[in-house]
Structure formats: structure tokens, C-alpha cells
Design a protein that fits this description.
Structural class: alpha/beta
Strand order of the largest sheet: 4-3-5-2-6-7-1-8
Distance between the termini: 96 Å
CATH class of the largest domain: Alpha Beta
Strand content: 5-15%
Shape: globular
CATH superfamily of the largest domain: P-loop containing nucleotide triphosphate hydrolases
CATH topology of the largest domain: Rossmann fold
Helix content: 40-55%
Length: 764
């Protein structure tokens, strides 16, 4: 006992030594960069189980005596309340929240363990006999705190790993050459991309990096049509143009898929202003800093010039700016459309929600006009088919109803852009949903689709659907575009693996949170929003996968608003973890192939979700070839599904009509029930009120519709003047008003009746 007890110094010395260590630790950390304090709410405590009976027995009890648990509890409570201990804990990174959680865990561990380690048993025994001070528990408490919060033990290492400053240094191959940067700046339809592509086609080797699969496909086809062999690389597709599969000198790819190690003569990065995108901006930053090309041609808005110049200054590369003017004039009209009766051939109505698209398409069809429909979740093949239909001069379809998906990637022959609304839901850098007017950049991008140089309309026009929106549109378009101030960054798989090495028991979602919190960036950069990644990480957290495989599954692009797509990611991960290949026959059974043509809008949306699931399979097939072996068969299946969806979109107004009729039937049956219920309530009230006879006479005078006659609601919906949602809202308001009106009359009748009774009664 005396030997073990000799390890513990007297109280002042022990506390003084610990304080000195804490002081040295804090001074060294401040000297290492003065980093911001971490957000400790992200530290999720691990569970440390109490010790069970030891095979060697309770050695501490044999050396001293068994501990009195009541005495120990008093000692622990005293330890917790000491201000000096709380301050000492703060020096080691334990703020009030972490200190409390660590103490609760520490107390439970001591109180519930059958036998404790010898050293802590002896210290507790000595404190009970006043042979040691309660402060001597701190080293054992700190050891336990680091067990449940392992991040406390490796904060400096984590800061080094998550240091995202000086990103140009991540690309040594690019830094080894002196690149020429040419910025083609101009509005939509100014020819900036055309000039950059001409350089690309005339070079011995080149890479095109675009924001969309459609754009990559377009350059792939143009390049091969011009006699320049070109491969295609997107997340879901690889096409080698050479018969032997050899890599061509030119490649068209989506920006996320570009290689930063392959040397090229010319690289084209399209829509460079998307470097500020909260979710995808990192891909443009990576391409700009990392592409190994002698010449890099950037195409985009002038708002990105200053930022690109600053970033290239850090790499020692100069930026040459070439400015372009719009090739065809465009004007903002002085009058709004106001009514769909005023539509003309070549008009495009831009909506920012699917519901608006369905409603507008239906109303156009009621007026005897045909319309094409394009929105973001449609497959690329369907978008191209709808664009071809709208562009075809021999096709009766002369009106286009679309979302802002037309802003890039499609060549459309539009004369006039009509904004159905100027309000668009967006996701900010923090992942929060915002509903605000569209930005100047977005308005210019969409408006610029009117009167394109290659279309039959040589002048473009822009207006709004509603008169009150027109002044706001003019104000938005006249504002200067805000300069882009920062470029996006994203942690790599290697960085996350290094994080996981230090925090092996932490979930991937929590690792990402801690990484982002610990990360340090230069003023020209920001860390991209990773909510989609974390959503997938939490979705598959319970499935046993290696960290690298889990990371790949979480980077798979999915629409988290589609339940079937999310459940498919989960199912794919589960199959992978069982080492069961996802074959063509298995996937056919899973999606219940063959699929029937859509009968209503819900069926169409379900088919779009299935198409997304096939996209997910193809995306994973290029990362895990052995486990997703049937990519070519799935691609053929997807083309067949694309045809089914195309037919559905071609008949979209019929699907909308059927869906509205189904809604209306449900609403009318509900309305009938509510009216009968309300009628019973009103009759019950009428019996208690005087003057019910007059009310009954008025009601009797109201003619009721005959059995064969359509209700007014049905006729209004059929004429496109009323939607099922509007009908539902009107019904709710009417029921509320009738109920309140009935209550008022009841109260008024009771009051009058009471007054009359008072007059008849003698004074008391």
C-alpha cells in the first residue's frame, strides 16, 4: 500500500503539477496557430462499460479494504462541485457541457463497477480516510473523459488533417507546369463557349468539363462529328470511341469526373461561376487548380473574374480576360402576359415548382394548345425529346412550360420568356431552405435563353405572368451581378480516413461534422454543404461496410426527396455488405419490371424515381465493378424506361386531368360528408333558436342541382379556372366561416332569449 500510495503527491503539489501541465498545454496550442474553439456539441460521447467481476479478484480491496459506495458517492459529488476542478477541466477542453457529461459517465463507471483498477481504488480509499485530497481524482477523471471523448486526446492532429488552407499545393502535377489561363467572359448567347470549344477541337489533346451530362453529351457528339475522336465520361457512363477501347486524346466529361493527373494541351471549364455553388462548387475549384493543361479556357459570368484572378495569383499564373457581348438583342416588355389567352408560338413559361408546371400545362391544354414540358427530374433523353418537339417547326407544339432546368444544357428556339413567378426555393451554404426572389445571375441565365443566335427568333423578349411581378423583374435584371467572393472545397476520402484513424468509434456523419468544424480555410474559400452526404451516411450507418466503401456510397448522387431512391441506396449497400452481386435479374425483380405506362401524375413520378435508381446502379457499377456487374444490360433497360417516360410526358395533360378528377372525386365525397354533418349541426342549432322558420324558407328557395348535372366545382376544374388544391382550400374556409357564423347566431339567440325572460320575470 505504501509503495502504491507513494505515487500520489501531497495535495498542493499534485494540483499544482496538473495546473502547470494544463498551462503549458494551452500555451503550446495557442502558439500553434490560435485556432477557434471547437463546437463541442458535435462531440458524441462513447459508452464506457463498468467493469465486471475480475478473474483475479478485487486486488484493490485486498490491498486496502472494500469501498463504501455511499462514501464514494459523497466524494464524487464534492469533486464535481469544486470550482478549481471545473476550471482545470476547461483548460483541457472540457467546457461545462462536456465536463458534466464526462462526470456522469465517470460516476456511473465507478458506482456500477464490481471491481476498479488498483490505482483508483487506493486513491478513493485514501480520500475516505483523509489521506489524500479529492482533487487527486482529477487525473483519473481526465483519463475517463478522454475515453468517452477521444477527440480531446488528438485535437492538434485533427486540426492538421482538416487544415484546408493553400489548396493549390494539393495538386503538385499542375504546379509543375506554367499554365495559361484564358477567361471567356460574357452573358448567355454571346459565343464565349463557342470560341473556347474551337480551341479545344483544334488542340492535339483536350478535356471539356461541363456542369451537366447533357452538355458533356453535346460536346462528345460535336467533337466526333467534326472528326475529332472524343470519349465521354460521366458519373453513370463511360463511352470509348476507339474500337479497341483505347483512350482518345479528347474527352468530354462532367466536371466532377475530370482527371487532375492526365496531361492535356487544352482544357475547357464551362460555367465557372458555379465555383460558388454551396453543394458542387468544390468540383470547379478542383478543376481550376488541378487540371494539367497547357491552356485552360474558362467560360462564365464576369462576376467570377476577380476571384479567379486572386486564386491564380496564389499559383503564380496570370489570367487573360476576353469579353463578349450578346449576339442578339433582348428586351424586357412593358406589359405582363396576365392571361394564358395571350400566349404566342415560341413562348416559354418558366415555373419554379412542379405543381405550377402541371397547373399551367393543364390550362394551356384547355385552350386547345399543345405544350412541351421540361423539368429537372426528367431523364436526359426525355428532356431532349421534349426540346426537339418544341423546336420542330412542323410540330403543332409551339409552347414550352419549364423550370429553370432550361438555363443550361439545351438548345431551344424560344422567342419570349415568361416568368410565372419570381420566387424560388433554394438551399444556402448551411443547408437551410430559403424562399426568396431569384438572383440577378439566375434571372439573366434564364432570360438569356430567348432569341438565341442559332434559333429562328433573332430577338428575345422577357416578361412576367403577373403585372405586379414585372417591376421586380426589371429591378432584378438591372442590378449589377454580385462578384463571387469564395470558392468551394470538399474533404477527400483520404482526409476522412485519417480522421477515422484517430476517432475509430465515431460515425461517418459525426466525423464529417467534426471535420467541417475543425477545418481552417483561406479567405477565398469555403467548405461546401455536406448535408446530402451526411443524410446518406446516417441512412446506411447500421450496415457493416469499410470506411472507404461507406464513403463512396455516401458520395453517390441521390434525390433524398424520393423515398424509393433512398431505400434503394440502403438495399444496394445491404447487398454489398453480404457480398451478394446485384445482377440484372435481381434488379428487374427489385423494380418489378416490366413497368406499365403511367396512368396519372403519381405513376409518372414513380417511373422517374425508378430511372434515378437505375442511374444509381450505373454510378456504383463504375466504382464496384464486381458487385454491380450488369451495367450494359441496365443501360438498355434504362433506355426502354426512358421511352415509357417520354410517352407519359407527351400525354402529361391527360395524366394531370385524370389526377385532378381522382382528387376531385375524393374531395367531393369528403365535401358531401362534411356538408351533411354541418347540415345536422345547423339544424340542431336552428331548433334551439327562434326565427328558424325564416332561415328554412331562405334555404328552401335555393335551387339544388339535378342528379345528372355536373357540380359547379367540377365545371370550374374542367375549365382550368380552379384546381383541386384551390377547391380544398375554399372548402376549408367555407366550413370555418359557417361554423363561426352558426356559433355567433347561437350566442345571439341565447342572449335575446335571456333578455326576454328577464322582462317577463318579476323583480326579485
Amino acid at each position: 500500500c505504501s509503495v502504491l500510495r507513494a505515487r500520489v503527491e501531497p495535495v498542493p503539489g499534485a494540483l499544482g503539477r496538473v495546473c502547470a501541465v494544463a498551462s503549458a498545454s494551452s500555451s503550446s496550442s495557442s502558439a500553434s496557430g490560435g485556432s477557434k474553439a471547437p463546437n463541442t456539441s458535435l462531440f458524441v460521447p462513447l459508452t464506457v462499460k463498468p467493469q465486471g467481476p475480475s478473474a483475479d479478484g478485487d486486488v484493490g480491496a485486498e490491498l486496502t479494504r472494500p469501498l463504501d459506495k455511499n462514501e464514494v458517492k459523497k466524494i464524487l459529488d464534492k469533486f464535481y462541485k469544486r470550482k478549481e476542478i471545473q476550471k482545470l477541466g476547461a483548460d483541457y477542453g472540457l467546457d461545462a457541457r462536456l465536463f458534466h457529461q464526462a462526470f456522469i459517465s465517470f460516476r456511473n463507471y465507478i458506482m456500477q463497477s464490481h471491481s476498479l483498477d488498483v490505482d483508483i481504488h487506493i486513491i478513493l480509499n485514501d480520500i475516505c480516510f483523509s489521506a489524500a485530497h479529492v482533487d487527486d481524482l482529477f487525473p483519473f477523471f481526465l483519463r475517463h473523459a478522454k475515453q468517452i471523448f477521444p477527440v480531446l486526446d488528438c485535437k492538434d492532429d485533427l486540426r492538421k488533417i482538416s487544415d484546408l488552407r493553400i489548396p493549390p499545393n494539393w495538386y503538385p502535377e499542375a504546379r509543375a507546369i506554367q499554365r495559361k489561363i484564358i477567361f471567356h467572359s460574357g452573358p448567355t448567347n454571346s459565343g464565349k463557349t463557342y470560341h473556347a470549344i474551337q480551341k479545344y477541337l483544334s488542340a492535339k489533346s483536350g478535356v471539356y468539363c461541363g456542369p451537366l451530362k447533357l452538355l458533356a453529351h453535346e460536346i462528345f457528339e460535336k467533337s466526333n462529328a467534326a472528326g475529332v475522336p472524343c470519349d465521354l465520361v460521366t458519373g453513370e457512363e463511360r463511352v470509348a470511341i476507339e474500337p479497341d477501347g483505347k483512350q482518345a486524346a479528347h474527352v468530354a466529361c462532367t466536371v466532377e469526373m475530370c482527371s487532375v493527373t492526365t496531361p492535356y494541351d487544352v482544357a475547357v471549364i464551362d460555367e465557372i461561376q458555379m465555383i460558388r455553388d454551396p453543394g458542387r462548387g468544390w468540383a470547379w475549384t478542383r478543376a481550376l487548380l488541378g487540371l494539367c493543361a497547357e491552356e485552360i479556357h474558362l467560360c462564365g459570368e464576369s462576376a467570377a473574374i476577380d476571384l479567379v484572378t486572386e486564386l491564380m495569383y496564389t499559383t503564380g499564373e496570370e489570367v487573360e480576360v476576353r469579353n463578349y457581348e450578346r449576339l442578339t438583342p433582348i428586351s424586357v416588355l412593358d406589359h405582363a402576359l396576365e392571361s394564358l389567352d395571350n400566349l404566342r408560338p415560341g413562348d416559354c413559361i418558366v415555373c419554379f415548382s412542379k405543381n405550377d408546371i402541371y397547373s399551367v400545362s393543364r390550362q394551356i391544354e384547355i385552350r386547345g394548345l399543345e405544350s412541351a414540358v421540361i423539368y429537372g427530374s426528367l431523364p436526359p433523353g426525355t428532356k431532349l425529346a421534349q426540346a426537339k418537339k418544341f423546336n420542330d417547326p412542323d410540330d403543332p407544339c409551339k409552347i414550352l412550360v419549364a423550370t429553370d432546368a432550361i438555363g443550361m444544357g439545351l438548345n431551344l428556339s424560344i422567342r419570349r420568356i415568361i416568368f410565372y413567378s419570381l420566387i424560388k426555393p433554394t438551399i444556402n451554404e448551411k443547408g437551410e431552405r430559403e424562399i426568396e426572389p431569384i438572383t440577378t445571375s439566375q434571372a439573366l441565365q434564364i432570360a438569356g435563353r430567348a432569341g438565341r443566335f442559332s434559333s429562328k427568333y433573332k430577338e428575345g423578349e422577357v416578361t412576367t405572368m403577373n403585372r405586379e411581378d414585372l417591376s421586380l423583374l426589371k429591378e432584378i435584371l438591372n442590378r449589377p451581378v454580385d462578384p463571387i467572393k469564395a470558392a468551394g472545397l470538399h474533404p477527400t476520402a483520404e482526409q476522412i480516413e485519417m480522421f477515422a484513424y484517430h476517432l475509430p468509434d465515431t460515425t461517418l456523419s459525426n466525423l464529417i461534422d467534426i471535420f467541417v468544424d475543425f477545418s481552417q480555410v483561406d479567405g477565398q474559400y469555403f467548405v461546401c454543404n455536406m448535408d446530402d452526404f451526411k443524410f446518406s451516411a446516417e441512412l446506411i450507418q447500421h450496415i457493416p461496410l469499410s470506411l472507404r466503401v461507406r464513403y463512396v456510397f455516401c458520395t453517390a448522387p441521390i434525390n433524398k426527396k424520393q423515398p424509393f431512391v433512398c431505400s434503394s441506396l440502403l438495399q444496394f449497400a445491404r447487398q454489398y455488405s453480404r457480398n451478394e452481386p446485384l445482377t440484372f435479374s435481381w434488379l428487374r425483380r427489385y423494380i418489378k419490371w416490366p413497368l406499365l405506362p403511367p396512368k396519372n401524375i403519381k405513376d409518372l413520378m414513380d417511373l422517374e424515381a425508378v430511372h434515378d435508381v437505375l442511374d444509381l446502379y450505373l454510378w456504383l457499377s463504375y466504382r464496384f465493378i464486381d458487385m454491380f456487374p450488369d451495367a450494359s444490360l441496365i443501360r438498355d433497360l434504362q433506355k426502354e424506361l426512358d421511352g415509357i417516360i417520354q410517352d407519359g410526358v407527351h400525354n402529361i395533360t391527360k395524366l394531370i386531368k385524370i389526377s385532378e378528377a381522382q382528387k376531385l372525386l375524393n374531395l367531393e365525397s369528403l365535401s358531401a360528408e362534411n356538408q351533411s354533418r354541418l347540415s345536422g349541426t345547423v339544424k340542431g342549432q336552428a331548433r334551439r333558436m327562434r326565427g328558424a322558420k325564416t332561415l328554412g324558407n331562405k334555404a328552401a328557395e335555393t335551387p339544388s342541382p339535378s342528379v345528372g348535372e355536373k357540380s359547379l366545382a367540377s365545371r370550374l376544374v374542367q375549365q382550368g379556372l380552379l384546381t383541386a388544391d384551390m377547391l380544398k382550400q375554399l372548402e376549408k374556409e367555407w366550413l370555418t366561416q359557417q361554423t363561426e357564423h352558426g356559433k355567433d347566431k347561437t350566442e345571439h339567440g341565447t342572449h335575446s332569449k335571456g333578455a326576454r325572460r328577464k322582462k317577463k320575470e318579476p323583480d326579485s
